[in-house]
Specification:
2 domains, 9-stranded mixed sheet, 17 helices, 9 strands
Length: 534
């Protein structure tokens, strides 16, 4: 329905001098999508108020509304419903046409956006009553990003394509969410920086199914990136039956969601549909996130909106600046799902907030996640596989803390290539807080092929893991380690498959440096040989 519009938008952005990467394409599409969505949301609320014979007060002053500056309609079309949900039906009318005699373009459009629209929208942050209001999010988004579309004519063309998109029906929102996820995936595949924002969705879905969040629980991601964990948890809980089943049981027999299925209309095994109260709980009191980077924050907000959460509880902040000693019971969550950034470094004053001080951001995040979980809470955290065996004091102390304060029941060992462009192998730690670890079940994921950009991880690759994890069953790829056998000095948790699988031997830094020196020497010798032939 809308796939061609997204392609057309990207085609125009590729001609734009100010946009050179997939990150730019996603960023610029996001702020325009947000304003189009906001217009649709306001139109819906105005219509509801009119039906109740009430007056609706618009958030935006008239000159800054979408149908005034971006897509004014021709006089004969002005009163047609914008994006009527019936338009998804065959033969239904399209959106009213833009009146190009009134619509701004060229320098006038660019100057209005840069000099009037963005400053006006940024001002909402000061007016907002709190960080979880839509007003605050408007102000935060438009204070953090900039319009990079330098040509007002290109901007006009993109706006015309954005105006074709509609948010009224669940079918339309569902397709838009899929198309937006595809943009995030392309951004993640574009290189090392893009990969910071994207965790493969099949891996997220498997983690969500194993952790099994339930209706009424508060779910948290303190490094939410594009909000993949929160969006997939929302999709999971919307599926009737999943929200109230016992932990470890799912109403859906397959990992994959049908491409065009609408979750609200699927009632597996005769499970009851969610009530209006349940849906409000999911909207307002279930999903919480924090994100440090401006672009990721904007993408997370837009991604959650397109998945159906109208005012996402995402805060733009550096999670690690919070002192662990300040976390109280009211601040804790039932479920933590996250893929914190690895390889980053934090300042000394930030490290002071943690009992185990480390430069590696992922180690600080893991301490934060353990602390912010309530007793009995469940976690699913992606982290570099070297965490399992590093011999530095911080790594050993953190493994000791994890094993003694939580039941680390599962470790999923992911193959190289799971994260495109990241260049590191990862594991998933699945645990429950409040009881010490007695046994650890390991699963060594082996899809039987080399993973890459054209051959990524899929849901079928993880089906066996999800199935075996329910009973912690042994197999050629899985085994159990008794906590009593773990070295009490190093707390080493290296992945060593006793069933014939390849043991993962982590080389020491000295070994790696010696190998690099040897390769350099070989290269120098080869160059000298070539010089001698010239």
């Amino acid at each position: 329905m809308f796939e061609q519009a997204f392609k057309n938008i990207d085609d125009v952005l590729r001609k734009e001098a100010g946009c050179t990467t997939e990150l730019d394409y996603t960023e610029q599409t996001s702020w325009l999508l947000f304003l189009k969505y906001l217009d649709a949301l306001e139109q819906d609320k105005a219509d509801e108020a009119a039906l109740e014979r009430k007056k609706y007060t618009f958030l935006l002053d008239k000159p800054y509304r979408w149908d005034e500056w971006a897509a004014p309609k021709a006089p004969g079309n002005a009163n047609l419903p914008i994006g009527d949900s019936s338009s998804s039906k065959i033969g239904a009318p399209k959106n009213p046409a833009v009146d190009h005699n009134r619509a701004k373009t060229g320098d006038d459009l660019r100057d209005f956006v840069n000099l009037k629209l963005f400053p006006y929208l940024h001002g909402f942050k000061q007016k907002a009553s709190g960080p979880n209001t839509i007003e605050y999010k408007i102000g935060e988004i438009f204070g953090e990003i900039k319009n990079k579309i330098q040509s007002g004519y290109n901007l006009r063309e993109i706006i015309d394509h954005i105006d074709e998109l509609r948010f009224r029906s669940q079918t339309e929102k569902h397709e838009l969410s899929h198309l937006y996820e595809a943009k995030i995936k392309n951004m993640g595949n574009a290189g090392r920086n893009g990969g910071e924002y994207y965790t493969p969705r099949p891996l997220i879905r498997a983690i969500v199914r194993v952790v099994h969040p339930k209706l009424g629980e508060r779910i948290y991601d303190g490094a939410c990136g594009s909000a993949g964990f929160l969006c997939e948890s929302f999709e999971y809980l919307k599926s009737p039956g999943n929200a109230n089943l016992p932990i470890g049981v799912s109403s859906s027999p397959n990992l994959r969601r049908p491409k065009n299925a609408i979750q609200e209309n699927v009632v597996p095994n005769g499970a009851p549909k969610l009530t209006t109260k349940d849906l409000k709980t999911l909207q307002d009191r279930t999903f919480y996130g924090k994100e440090k980077k401006s672009l990721a924050y904007v993408i997370a907000i837009m991604n959650m909106i397109l998945h159906g959460i109208e005012a996402p509880n995402i805060i733009h902040t550096n999670t690690l600046t919070e002192n662990l000693a300040d976390i109280q019971e009211k601040d804790r969550y039932d479920v933590v799902l996250a893929n914190p950034p690895f390889g980053g470094q934090e300042r000394k004053e930030v490290q002071q907030n943690f009992p185990i001080r480390a430069g590696e951001t992922a180690f600080l995040f893991l301490q934060h996640f353990i602390k912010i979980l309530r007793a009995g809470g469940r976690g699913g955290i992606v982290i570099k596989n070297t965490f399992l065996s590093n011999t530095d004091n911080a790594s050993v102390s953190l493994r000791k803390m994890l094993l003694e304060s939580c039941n680390l029941h599962t470790v999923l060992d992911c193959p190289g290539g799971t994260f495109q462009g990241a260049g590191v192998k990862t594991v998933v730690l699945l645990f429950e807080k409040g009881t010490k670890t007695r046994k650890v079940w390991f699963y060594q994921l082996d899809p039987g092929r080399n993973l890459g950009k054209t051959n990524p991880l899929n849901d079928d690759d993880l089906a066996e893991f999800v199935k075996l994890q329910k009973t912690f069953a042994d197999s050629p790829k899985s085994w159990t380690v008794d906590a009593k056998t773990i070295d009490p000095k190093s707390f080493d948790l290296s992945v060593k498959n006793p069933n014939g699988g390849e043991a993962v031997a982590h080389r020491t830094p000295k070994t790696i440096m010696d190998e690099i020196a040897a390769l350099d020497a070989e290269s120098a010798e080869a160059l000298e040989t070539i010089k001698g032939l010239l």
